[in-house]
Design a protein that fits this description.
Arc Repressor Mutant, subunit A, mainly alpha, 2 domains, elongated
Length: 162
């Protein structure tokens, strides 16, 4: 079992799961007619979980939290997520956070610490480490290069003048 899989009690329903209840049913009723008859590839429950991460990448999503939302065991959910998405929940969450940071770097004048906080990273150093692993460059160099390209300047000339 992965370290981020912790048991969730059935007694405490997750707030905001009305749409999931409609599709998956609740313990006291069967799923509605709009529920898929057979599980498509990728599994619709994985798509629901992925949409949750995509909508709020700054949240500390764990496999256990997402599994509870889509009513699967943590083990089964992790296996399905890995098979359908091609990476674990923590890897996918980090990839989405890096994408959010990229967007903020190019669309705001926030400093790296503020971008780290808004993207869901613990601090600037965590953002820089994850960003460099994903893009092979630092957030500052990425911002400078991409803004130069968008302004029609040669990024190599920008680096020489720095």
């Amino acid at each position: 079992m992965s370290p981020d899989c912790e048991p969730i009690s059935e007694a405490s329903p997750t707030p905001g799961t009305a749409a999931i209840d409609l599709v998956l049913g609740t313990p006291d009723r069967e799923p509605g007619p709009e529920a898929p008859v057979s599980s498509p590839t990728p599994d619709y429950r994985v798509l629901i979980a992925r949409a949750r991460i995509d909508a709020e990448p700054w949240k500390a999503w764990t496999a256990a939290m997402l599994a509870a939302e889509v009513r699967l065991s943590c083990f089964e959910f992790s296996r399905k997520f890995n098979n359908d998405i091609g990476m674990s929940v923590p890897k996918y969450r980090e990839m989405r956070r890096v994408k959010t940071a990229k967007l903020l770097l190019l669309s705001t004048c926030l400093n790296t610490s503020e971008i780290a906080a808004q993207s869901g990273f613990f601090d600037k150093s965590h953002l820089c480490r994850a960003f460099k692993l994903a893009t092979r460059t630092t957030p500052q160099k990425y911002r400078k290069r991409e803004l130069a390209i968008r302004a029609g300047r040669n990024p190599a000339a920008t680096q020489e003048g720095a």
